[in-house]
Amino acid sequence: MKDIAAKLYNHILNPPADAELARAREMAGSQLPTIWLLGKTGAGKTSIVRQLTGHSRAEIGNGFQPCTSNSSRYDYPPEHPVVRFLDTRGLGEASYDADEDLRLLGEGSHALFVVLRLRDAERSATLQALTQIRRHARHIQPGHIAVIHTAVLEVTDAHDRQRAVAAAQQAVEQAWGGPVAHCEVDFPEPERGDEYPDTVGAEELAGLIAAKVPELRLWLREQAGAAGARSSFRRLSGEILWYAGAAAASDAIPLVGLVSVPAVQGKMLHSLAQKYGVSWSRRNVSEFVSALGTLFTLRYLVSLGGRQLGKLIPGFGQLAGSAFAASVSYASTYALGRAACSYLYHKQADIPLDDGSIRQVYQRAMKEGRDARRQPRD
C-alpha cells in the first residue's frame, strides 16, 4: 500500500513532460468518438450541438474548423475534448467526395446521423450523399447510422407530423438500403424568433447517441447534472473522460502503457487537485490510496503488468490484448478521477469521509467505465 502511494505521489509531484503529454493528446485526438452530422445548411445541426454541449451558437460557429474539402470538425470541450462533431457541408455538389470524410473517421468509434428538417421536402442532396457514403463506406456499419428529424413542431398537426416523419424515414431507408433508427427533436432558439418554449426529444436524442456511440454514455449522463459532490464532479467530468481516453489510446500500443498510463493518471490527479484548491501532500495521497482499498492496490499492480503482457502474445496481442488493455485503462482512469473528485470535494469542504465511501465510488465508476467500453454497437 505504501509503495503504491509513493509511486502515485511521484507521478503527481512530477507530472509528465509537455512532450509526453502532447503524445497522449495526439493519440487521444486520433481516436475521439465522432458524431457525424450529415445534412443541409439550416437542417438544425448547430441546434443539436448546442443542445448537447450547452455552448452558444457563436461559440459553436467559431469552434468548427475545416478538416476536409467539404467538412468541418468541432472538438468538445476545447481543452480536453471527449467528442468530435463532424459537419459535412456542400451536399449536392459534384465535387463531394465521401471517401475523404470516411478516411477522416479512421478506426475510432463513430456514427452517422442524418439530419433532416421535417418541413423541408427537398432532401435530394442529402440522400445522394448518403447513397455515396453507403457505397464507399468501410467503417460505417448498419447499426452506426440514425436519422434526427428536427424542428418537428413546425408541423403543428400531429397527424401531418406523423406522416411527414414516415415519408422522410422511407426516403432515408431506401437510400441506405435498410432500416434506420430515428428520433424527433425540436430545440427552439428564442434569439432566432422561435415562439414556442418547449424542447422536444432531448432525452431521446441522448439515448440514440448513447446506443450508437456507447463511449459517450458517461459524458451524456454527466451532462444531465446533479447536486453536491456529483455536481462538482460534473464540472470536471469532461476533463476526466479526456484523460481516460488518452490512457486508453496509449495503452493500445505494447509496453507504452507501462510508462504513459501512470503518467497520464498522475497528471490528471495533479490537475484535479488544482481545480479544488487542495494540495496532494504525502499524507493526503496515502489517505486517498487507503480509502480506495486493497482491491485497488492489487488491481493497479496486477492488471497493468498483465495487460501489457497480453498485448505481446502473437495473434492475441494485436486484437484482444490491446482492446482489453485499452478498456481497462479507460475504466481505471475514469474511476480514479471520479474517486479523486469525491475525495478532494470532501477535503475542500472539510467534510469527514464516510467509511468505505471512496472505495464504493471507485468500484461503481470502474463498472461504469467497463460497461461503456464493452457495450456492443450493432
Automatic annotation (TrEMBL):
Keywords: Kinase, Transferase. InterPro entries: GTP-bd, P-loop_NTPase. The keyword Manganese does not apply. It comes from the Bacteria. SUPFAM superfamilies: P-loop containing nucleoside triphosphate hydrolases (SSF52540). Pfam families: MMR_HSR1. Residues 35-129 form the G domain. One of its GO terms (molecular function) is GTP binding. The keyword Kinase applies. Signal peptide: none annotated. Transmembrane segments: none annotated. This is Kinase. It comes from Kineobactrum salinum.
